[in-house]
Structures are given as C-alpha cells and as structure tokens.
Amino acid sequence: TVDEEISAYRAVITHNNFYEFGTGKQDPFERAQQFKTDPWSVEISGECAKPGTYALEDLLRSVDLEERIYRLRCVEAWSMVVPWIGFELGTLLKQFEPNSKAKYVEFETLVDPEQMPGQRSVFSSIPWPYVEGLRMDEAMHPLTIMALGVYGQAMPPQNGAPFRLVVPWKYGFKSIKSIVAIRFREAMPKNSWNVIAPGEYGFYANVNPNVDHPRWSQASER
Ligand SMILES: Nc1nc2c(c(=O)[nH]1)N[C@H]1C(S)=C(S)[C@@H](COP(=O)(O)O)O[C@H]1N2
Ligand SMILES: [Mo]
Predict the structure, then answer these.
(1) Which ligand has the minimum distance to the alpha carbon of residue 110?
(2) Cis-peptide into 129, omega within 30 deg
C-alpha cells in the first residue's frame, strides 16, 4: 500500500499511454476495446533451461494472485495510484530456470497492425515491437509484478491486457503492456524509449525527482 488515495477508476482506464493504439491519451480507451487477448501465448527464450511457447493459462497455473497498491509515475510527470492484481515476476521467471548467463530479462509487446491502429501508421512513432528490459536482480525483486488486473477485475485492454509488467520504482515506460515474449539475455536489452531518444530516456529509468528530464522538471508530479 501507499500513503495516498487510490486514483479514480475512470482516470486509470481512460488516460493511458499505449502507443500501439495511438499517441493520444484517450486513444487506447477508444480503440482497444475489441482487442483479442484469449487465446494468448508467450514465447520464452534465451539463457534458460526451459525455453518454449507457453499458453498464458499454463503459465498462470501456479501463481498466487494478490493486490498491490502502487504509484505509477509516467516520465511525463503525471502519476496515478493504482490497485493492481498480479503476482511476483520472480516466481514466474524461476519456472524457466535461468542460467548464470542470464544477466537481463527482455520483454516484447504484441505486433498486430490489424488490431493495433498505432502500428499501421506510416509515420509510426516507434519501431515495433515495443521492447523493455530489466536487470536480473530488478526482475527478481519482490516488488516487481506482472499484473493481470486493476480494481479487482481483469486487466482492461488499454491498460495492457492480458498481462503487463509493473515496476513501481521506475518510470511508467518500463512497465510494458500486453507481453508476448520474455527473453533471458547476457547483454543489456535495447529498450524502445532509449532507442528512440537516448538523450532523454535511459535503461534504468528509476524515478528520481532530483534529476530533471532534459525538457521538463521532475521535482513534482501531477
Ligand atoms: N507496449 C507498450 N507498453 C507501454 C506503453 C506503450 O506505449 N506500449 N507505454 C508505457 C508508458 S509511457 C506508461 S506511463 C505506462 C502507462 O500505463 P497505464 O496506461 O496503465 O497508466 O505504460 C507503459 N507501457
Ligand atoms: Mo510514460
């Protein structure tokens, strides 16, 4: 829990960043409602003993769901307090038996231009897929969760159904949505926003009000 009031449900499900559905804050809410997330499979690869393509329901068989109330702070300096439903990422990753070369974990979002209008644009803002990554110890940290829902209900599509990462001490762009691939890597993954604007966004992206974004202050949040 956190020492702040939970944000309005309406705000959490209508003010989103999910560029696959457009760059406007309302675009994901308006355009993602028909997004198909069942069946869903996840490809596990890289430095581990049990790579493969797994159906989401098989991955979820042994996880314990719990509610975690976290701040989500976007690097744009707005934030929300969200009651997530999820499970510790570490409990999932251990199932695949990562080896000693697995220094990082890389995540990828679905690419499906038919369903995701933001991926159809010729002037597309991002090279798809959206990619994120964590150092292994960050991925195994008990505060790092995979979320399957908000406010006691299944994840709305605009918030990253069927499951998305939530890392409460990092800027929101690290918390990648609608994950279809998890890769154990020796090399540091090239995360999307670092590739797009290396002068503005790094890999670690830990929330720090004392370090301003090159174009705006991070001292406070809206
Ligand atoms: N695949 C994907 N994941 C994403 C994004 C995105 O555009 N695509 N936006 C990120 C950003 S910038 C933020 S702030 C959070 C927003 O999560 P929310 O819409 O649930 O508040 O999602 C992150 N995950
Ligand atoms: Mo963000």
Answers:
(1) 1
(2) yes
What are the tens digits of pLDDT across the range 162-189? 999 999 999 999 999 999 999 999 999 9
- Ligand 1 pocket, 130 CB below 6 A? yes
Closest ligand 1 atom to residue 130 Cα is 1
* Token pair 């198909």 in the structure block, residue: 36
Cβ–ligand 1 contact at 13 (below 6 Å): no
Residue 45 backbone phi and psi in degrees, to 5: -150, 175
Q: Whose CA is nearest to atom 21 of ligand 1?
A: 16
CA–centroid distance, residue 176 to ligand 1 (Å) = 6
CA distance 104 to 127: 21
Is the shortest distance between the CB of 146 and ligand 1 below 6 Å? Answer: no
What DSSP element (H or E) covers 161? Answer: none
CB count within 10 Å of CB 96 equals 21
CA distance 84 to 86: 6
In the chain, beta strands by DSSP E = 41-46, 52-55, 66-73, 79-88, 104-109, 131-135, 145-150, 153-154, 164-166, 179-185
Model confidence pTM above 0.90: yes
C-alpha span between 122 and 119 (Å, rounded): 8
Yes or no: say if 157 and 149 are a contact pair by the CB < 8 Å rule. no
**What angle (nearest 5°) sits at the alpha carbon of residue 2, between those of residues 172 and 82?**
45
Pick the residue whose CA is nearest to atom 23 on ligand 1.
173
